[in-house]
Design brief:
mainly alpha, 2 domains, transmembrane helix, transmembrane, PAP2/HPO_sf
Length: about 260
Amino acid sequence: MKEKGAPSAQETRRSDYKGMSSEAPTSMLNCIIDLDKRCSMYIYNKNMGTPMGMPRAVLKTLENSGDGRLWIPGTIALWLALALPPLSKPRWVVFNLFIGLLFDLTVIGFLKFLIRRPRPVYNHGMHLVVSMDHWSFPSGHASRAFFVASFLCLCFLENTLWVETLGVRVFILVATWSIVTSASRVLLGRHFVLDVVAGAGLGVVEGIVVYNLLSFPEEVSERLYLWFVGNACRQQWHQPYLPLPDFCKALNSSTGM
């Protein structure tokens, strides 16, 4: 005889099924994370524990080559250095590359804050710039490297002269750099494999999004360049600073726009 208040066999089976369905995704995720940790540690130990492994100095150089502290001020300096009028197209590329780097920094920072995956326990000698650097997923170096590579390749394909002049060498160069820089994150013990894979995929998506949706027209890049350089010259001549709206009005009146 069924005890009063006790669940029926059908209700018990239903509750067991619900428990299994809710635990299954978590269990699978834990298995993937555990496998990721094991593979990452195996790769790290293999590289560091054998004479044939890639030297740490080389890995550190690759790490520095993908550092945002190098790329963000570097793109600004390069944008200003391209001073000749025929270089307006390269200036546009560098300007939007800078915009994309800021976009990448925002996306990666948000995801790291949201997911908060700790870095590998064997990660040593890493200088943390901001608090988000404590977190591992996704890899900012990998996303940055693959964003730069994909964005530059898309810009390169748009210009027939660049393709005819440089050919496939540019693709090989940026692809090789992005791959080895991303791989160095695992070999140095900075990230797990899945961090790098996710970062690389995200970087490619960012490159496509920035190129097709977030790129500013060449005119914007040129006006900002002229305004910045013009104010630098005005300071040298001890003339007052010219705000950007006033500069645009003066430029429109002089060009008849």
